[in-house]
């Protein structure tokens, strides 16, 4: 994020990967799809190469806010440093970070409390094209990591 960026300039894609089976599920929110915690505007598109935005801020504050919103203990989420994407929106660029739930099982109750649920990649075909592309890239990163 640029040094003077706000939370609106960044989103998280939250996922859980089962350690024994590698089953991967993404947190899908009713109002924002897989981009926590604010929907991307219509006409958003994923940039092939992130634009130079100056100094980037570490997404730790975004991660802590997500843990609080979900009612998770500190350390309940971890940034996947191998992933970073940028979305071009009518309101300006938005950085997308990938974060993994660290627990053995997905926090189903926490997801339900905020109107979300965990879904497989095959259950998101109805999302807008930008979110589908972000998930494609995220899944590739997860499976390579």
Write the layout of secondary structure elements.
Elements: E1 10-17, E2 24-29, E3 45-46, H1 60-70, E4 77-89, E5 92-101, H2 108-113, E6 116-119, H3 129-144
Parallel strand pairs: 1-5
Antiparallel strand pairs: 1-2, 2-6, 3-4, 4-5
Short description:
This protein has 145 residues and is α+β, with helices and mostly antiparallel strands.
Q: Which labels suit this protein?
A:
disordered N terminus; alpha+beta; 145 residues; 6 strands; globular; Nucleoside Triphosphate Pyrophosphohydrolase; 3 helices
Describe what this molecule looks like in 3D.
The chain has one domain: Alpha-Beta Complex (Nucleoside Triphosphate Pyrophosphohydrolase), CATH 3.90.79. Helix content is 23%, strand content 30%. It has three helices and six strands. It has a six-stranded mixed sheet. β4 and β5 form a beta hairpin. The longest helix is centred in the C-terminal third of the chain and has 16 residues.
Secondary structure tally: strands? 6
Please identify the top-level CATH class: Alpha Beta
Give the count of structural domains. 1
Distance between the ends: 23 Å
User: What is the second-level CATH architecture?
Assistant: Alpha-Beta Complex
- Number of continuous helical runs: 3
The strands making up the biggest β-sheet line up spatially as 3-4-5-1-2-6
> Which structural class do the helices and strands define?
alpha+beta
**Mind telling me the C-alpha Rg?**
14 Å
**How is the main sheet built?**
6 strands, mixed
What do the pLDDT scores average to? 89
The helix/strand series, from N terminus to C terminus, equals EEEHEEHEH
Helix share, percent: 10-25%
């Amino acid at each position: 994020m640029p040094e003077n960026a706000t939370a609106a300039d960044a989103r998280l894609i939250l996922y859980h990967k089962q350690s024994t089976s590698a089953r991967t599920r993404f947190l899908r929110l009713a109002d924002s799809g897989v981009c926590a915690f604010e929907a991307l505007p219509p006409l958003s598109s994923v940039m092939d190469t992130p634009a130079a935005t100056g100094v980037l801020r570490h997404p730790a504050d975004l991660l802590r806010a997500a843990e609080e919103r979900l009612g998770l203990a500190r350390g309940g989420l971890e940034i996947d440093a191998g992933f970073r994407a940028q979305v071009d929106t009518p309101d300006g660029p938005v950085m997308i970070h990938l974060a993994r739930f660290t627990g053995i099982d997905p926090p189903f109750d926490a997801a339900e409390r905020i109107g979300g649920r965990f879904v497989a990649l095959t259950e998101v075909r109805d999302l807008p094209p930008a979110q589908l592309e972000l998930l494609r890239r995220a899944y590739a990163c997860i499976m390579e990591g």
